[in-house]
Amino acid sequence: MARVRQKGTRAEIDLRRALHARGLRYRLHVPLLTKPRRVADIVFSGAKVAVFVDGCFWHGCPEHASWPKNNADFWREKIETNRSRDADTDQRLHALGWTTVRVWEHEDASQAASRIAELVDARRVNRTHPCR
């Protein structure tokens, strides 16, 4: 497991390129919570949008998740713990005024970037016009 990339995965790089091509600028691997420490993959600080790129295996994708037969109890607990931590992270960030976006590694980067760009633009408009 030590060799599994946590940063700079192919899915993350493809998404970053698609976002950059749309003119969006962002920060990478920003710790948004401490105790417990939670780090977003891509952050739009001004709009308060945090993007997490989740691997299908590690986060239990409903379309592509597979449950290993070897050491099945360990892996089921590991993946379920990841899912619980993801939900906890989303809830904590929402309480702080952030919007979280979860992108599965199998998603088309261009489509995900479009979805994120719309959300970031909408959040920026609402933050610059407080009467809305």
Brief descriptors of the model:
globular, 132 residues, 3 helices, four-stranded mixed sheet, alpha+beta, single chain, Endonuclease, Chain A, 20% strand
Strand and helix layout:
Layout: H1 10-21, E1 27-33, E2 38-44, E3 49-54, H2 72-95, E4 99-104, H3 109-128
Parallel strand pairs: 3-4
Antiparallel strand pairs: 1-2, 2-3
Helix pairs in contact: 1-3
Describe this structure in words.
This protein has 132 residues and is of the alpha+beta class. The chain has a single domain (10-43, 52-124), classed as VSR Endonuclease (Endonuclease, Chain A), CATH 3.40.960.10. Helix content is 42%, strand content 20%. It is built from three helices and four strands, in the order αβββαβα. It has helices at residues 10-21, 72-95, 109-128; strands at 27-33, 38-44, 49-54, 99-104. A four-stranded mixed beta sheet has the order 1-2-3-4, with helices on both faces. Helix 2 links the parallel strand 3 and strand 4. The termini are far apart. The mean pLDDT is 89.
Main sheet overview: 4 strands, mixed
Question: CATH homologous superfamily, by name?
Answer: VSR Endonuclease
Q: What is the class in the CATH system?
A: Alpha Beta
- Amount of helix: 40-55%
- Tally the structural domains: 1
Number of alpha- plus pi-helical segments: 3
Q: In order across it, which strands form the biggest sheet?
A: 1-2-3-4
CATH topology: Endonuclease, Chain A
Radius of gyration: 16 Å
Give me the count of strands.
4
Uncertain segments of ≥5 residues (pLDDT<50)? Answer: none
Q: From the 3D coordinates, which CATH architecture would you assign? A: 3-Layer(aba) Sandwich
Mean pLDDT: 89
Shape: globular
Structural class: alpha+beta
Task: Please write the string of helix (H) and strand (E) elements.
Answer: HEEEHEH
**CA-to-CA gap between the ends?**
47 Å
Q: Beta-strand level of the residues, as a percent range? A: 15-25%
